[in-house]
Amino acid sequence: MSTRLYPTFVKGNPQLRIFLPNFFMKLVKPKINEPSNHVSFIVPVEMTDDDIKNYLEKIYKTPVTQVRSRICEGEIKKNYKNYLVKDPDYRMACITLPDDVKFEFPDLFPQEKKEQVEKEQKRLIQQAEDLMKQRRRNWDRKDVPTWFGV
């Protein structure tokens, strides 16, 4: 079910051809505690349950026990000019893996990286405070040039 245009095959001109699907699957973190063998995805509306199962089994080589999906309406909002704007619809797919397969959501922000970011932020805050102390030193002589002296 691909809509990509591929060059026509010419006999005597064999080429390597890789057919990639036009679909995307976005992994969604569950809002409630689900069993470890359940995974949720946001997929396009055109994708069927069989497409989802084949996508996971063929491309990612993941065994799939059951696929359930539902179509969710996009959110309707008002923009700054009071026009109604509707987000596109999407399909929510809930995948059940075999009991022996456990899925663990990847840790996108590991602890050591958080500590490194916090350390860098503290350094920048300290640097800003030192700069403000230097500027505050001559607060009463703001119209006198710096070359004139302290």
Automatic annotation (TrEMBL):
Q: Where in the cell is it found?
A: Mitochondrion
Position of the signal peptide: none
Q: Which GO terms describe its molecular function?
A: structural constituent of ribosome
Q: In which broad location class does this protein mainly occur, judging by the first location in its UniProt entry?
A: mitochondrion
Sorted alphabetically, the keyword list is:
Mitochondrion, Ribonucleoprotein, Ribosomal protein
Instruction: Name the Gene Ontology biological process terms.
Output: mitochondrial translation
> Which Gene Ontology CC terms are recorded?
mitochondrial large ribosomal subunit
The cross-references to PANTHER family, in alphabetical order and at most eight, read: LARGE RIBOSOMAL SUBUNIT PROTEIN UL23M, RIBOSOMAL PROTEIN L23-RELATED
Quaternary structure (record): Component of the mitochondrial ribosome large subunit (39S) which comprises a 16S rRNA and about 50 distinct proteins.
Q: What family does the database annotate?
A: Belongs to the universal ribosomal protein uL23 family.
Q: What is this protein called?
A: Large ribosomal subunit protein uL23m
Q: Give the organism the record lists.
A: Trichonephila clavata
Q: What's the source species' lineage? A: Eukaryota, Metazoa, Ecdysozoa, Arthropoda, Chelicerata
